[in-house]
Structure formats: C-alpha cells, structure tokens
Amino acid sequence: MKNKLKVYRAMHDLTQEELAKELKVTRQTIIAIEKLKYDPSLGLAFKIARFFKVQIEDIFQDDE
C-alpha cells in the first residue's frame, strides 16, 4: 500500500518522534510505514487520517 505519510508529516512540520507520540506508537512504526515496510492496521490508518483531518484515502492508496 502506498502512502503519503511523510508528505503530510512534513506539511505539518512534525518529526517522526513527534508524530509517533501524538499517535501513541513508536518512532519505528512511523519509519516502517513511511518506508512502505509496514501497512498500518485499519484502526491506526483511521487515527492517522483523523490526526491530519483528511480522508483516509488522501494518505493511503492501494497499489493497484
């Protein structure tokens, strides 16, 4: 699954650590999502979208 997490994080001037704290996950989780090594759970994906006040599809796109 492709994502624009790094783009949204940069637009809000957040470090990986700051975003991780806001979402209550580890910095390693943020790194793995940004590097496309880990697809977040649906719950975490919605949490990320709510945090940035966007639709989930704005951040996460299917590979197809």
Description:
With 64 residues, the chain is mostly helical. It has one domain (2-54): lambda repressor-like DNA-binding domains (434 Repressor (Amino-terminal Domain)). Helices cover 59% and strands 6% of the residues. The protein contains five helices and two strands, in the order E-H-H-H-H-H-E. The protein has a two-stranded antiparallel sheet. Helix 2 (16-23) crosses helix 3 (27-34). The model has no long low-confidence stretch (mean pLDDT 96).
Largest sheet: 2 strands, antiparallel
Structural class: mainly alpha
Query: What low-confidence regions span 5 or more consecutive residues with pLDDT below 50?
Result: none
| Text of the CATH class | Mainly Alpha
Spatial strand order of the main sheet: 1-2
CATH topology: 434 Repressor (Amino-terminal Domain)
Show the helix and strand layout.
Blueprint: E1 2-3, H1 5-11, H2 16-23, H3 27-34, H4 42-52, H5 56-59, E2 60-61
Antiparallel strand pairs: 1-2
Helix pairs in contact: 2-3
Domain HTH cro/C1-type: 5-59
Pfam family, one: HTH_3
GO molecular function, one term: DNA binding
Question: Key features?
Answer:
64 residues; mainly alpha; 434 Repressor (Amino-terminal Domain); globular
Short précis:
The chain contains five helices and two strands, in the order E-H-H-H-H-H-E. The protein is mainly alpha-helical.
